[in-house]
Amino acid sequence: xxxxxxxxxxxxxxxxxxxxxxxxxxxxxxxxxxxxxxxxxxxxxxxxxxxxxxxxxxxxxxxxxxxxxxxxxxxxxxxxxxxxxxxxxxxxxxxxxxxxxxxxxxxxxxxxxxxxxxxxxxxxxxxxxxxxxxxxxxxxxxxxxxxxxxxxxxxxxxxxxxxxxxxxxxxxxxxxxxxxxxxxxxxxxxxxxxxxxxxxxxxxxxxxxxxxxxxxxxxxxxxxxxxxxxxxxxxxxxxxxxxxxxxxxxxxxxxxxxxxxxxxxxxxxxxxxxxxxxxxxxxxxxxxxxx
Amino acid sequence: xxxxxxxxxxxxxxxxxxxxxxxxxxxxxxxxxxxxxxxxxxxxxxxxxxxxxxxxxxxxxxxxxxxxxxxxxxxxxxxxxxxxxxxxxxxxxxxxxxxxxxxxxxxxxxxxxxxxxxxxxxxxxxxxxxxxxxxxxxxxxxxxxxxxxxxxxxxxxxxxxxxxxxxxxxxxxxxxxxxxxxxxxxxxxxxxxxxxxxxxxxxxxxxxxxxxxxxxxxxxxxxxxxxxxxxxxxxxxxxxxxxxxxxxxxxxxxxxxxxxxxxxxxxxxxxxxxxxxxxxxxxxxxxxxxxxxxxxxxxxxxxxxxxxxx
Lengths: 291, 310
Fold this sequence. Notes:
The complex is a heterodimer of chains A (291) and B (310). By secondary structure, chain A is mostly helical. Chain A has helices at residues 2-32, 39-59, 64-89, 98-120, 144-166, 168-178, 180-185, 190-212, 222-237, 242-262, 265-282; strands at 134-137, 140-143. Chain A has a two-stranded antiparallel sheet with strand order 1-2. In chain A, helix 2 packs across helix 8 (190-212), helix 5 packs across helix 6 and helix 10 (242-262) packs antiparallel against helix 11 (265-282). Chain B is mainly α and 310 residues long. The radius of gyration of chain B is 19 Å and the shape is globular. The two termini of chain B are 27 Å apart. The chains are: A mainly alpha (291), B mainly alpha (310).
């Protein structure tokens, strides 16, 4: 019994980060019809900036929580600035051009990855633990730090879900992703909404990267693994669908933790691929996709 | 009707053959083989783009061709021509099955599945001990009597397949492919089986890709799972974007120019990433029609109705 609870707890904590990551992917696809291959690099950049800033601030004499707080804010700001620049000079021109924008994002991802390796070197970084201790939930063990991470990630995801479902901006985002021309006819400023959607998606990737920074070993290519799984999650759920991204992420997390426990991680990845194939055979546009 | 531009292309082909025959030194011959194989890979990648799909599974099929040919040569000691054919046939046949399943999805879905396919295939190689697992396969040599002419042979095969792909694109079949890209539902209403046409398109392209893999395996003598990651497809995309996708010569041009340029930028992982990444970004933002488009503008004689324009 204990082992099932433990696996469930593990799935939840992996899934929380995947949900944030794939929500961003699906949001960007929804409003701009862009399959953003560079999404993982925003994730990497947030984690890397924090990994550099925290030891630097601690050297300056800042207490650890303050250092984390400042680094967190700084990391998110850095990513948002990059996102804004890339939107302005690159992505904006390729809205609704699926192949063109994808090719562009592949190039950007490769370029950024190379630059990260150059700037941050290939070294792996591990940050000091922010919160010590472990908690037990129904017999499953979890470090307090990871529990806090999960809770924050879930709160952000719920807030985002609520915002998209109920606020004025959320309604505009959904209208644009359903039919951008009809949305424009209703007086929704498409360009501004598209940019907001893109930046929100970028912010979600950055938050996911920032949350993981204290708990994992950070290297310059950390985003790639999340990118692949995030894509599998949104494809299973249906590109552009918010509930689909959440369902897909949880499914991927369960496969990863259960498959990783009973078999091994590479078999779990193969299993994800098989599931994608099966889902697409039955529903060629994902579980929640329409078309 | 042999136009001037066709004559120029034919002359360039003959020069490439002669050049590869008289080239001396290991580095020169490896370079020739890389360029030729990259040209052919880019052309086959472009062939699937005719139906509007970005085929990232291409990297996986290069791997299948390489491993199948490698096994045929090292384990079963088959003649070179037969292992070449086996590599190509394995890639082609597997792609027909994979395509039959995955080509129901299109656009972003197909793209991401083909990407996942490549990565999963790579994971499977690392787990198969028969083909060397993580460390790969060694000792894949072309037969001794061919060793001297190997670069010439590779260039020759490349030219033959380029011609085949070009003729196919110009044929009725090729016109259907472009029609599917423009409006697949319309093609369906005329009574053409869109799904099977796409499957055959992928099959043909993958057969050619398999040839590339087999040639590459015999040129490098060593293959390992890491050689066939999705980056192969990304680099191919860079060749195509820089060269220009409106004409098959764009693929040829891009692959030659970038492969040669990369020799300067080469060295360590990060520089390679930056080089290809920057090439794609610049290609997309600054040269939307690629080098071929630039040439067309400078040499009006080349201008002709670009076939698969958007």
